[in-house]
Amino acid sequence: xxxxxxxxxxxxxxxxxxxxxxxxxxxxxxxxxxxxxxxxxxxxxxxxxxxxx
Length: 53
Ligand SMILES: [Zn+2]
Hints:
15% of the residues lie in helices and 42% in strands. The chain contains 1 helix and 3 strands, in the order αβββ. Bound molecules: zinc ion (ZN).
C-alpha cells in the first residue's frame, strides 16, 4: 500500500475544511454534500483527510 502517494490524488489541493474549520489542510471537493456559500446559495463542501471516511 502507498497511502501517502494516493492521498495526493484524492486531496489535490490545500484549503479550508468545512467540517473541522482546519485551514491550509489538504482537501477534496465533496460534490454530494452542499454547504451555504454565504450568498444565498450552496456549493459543494470541502473536506479534509481527517474528516473524510
Ligand atoms: Zn476537516
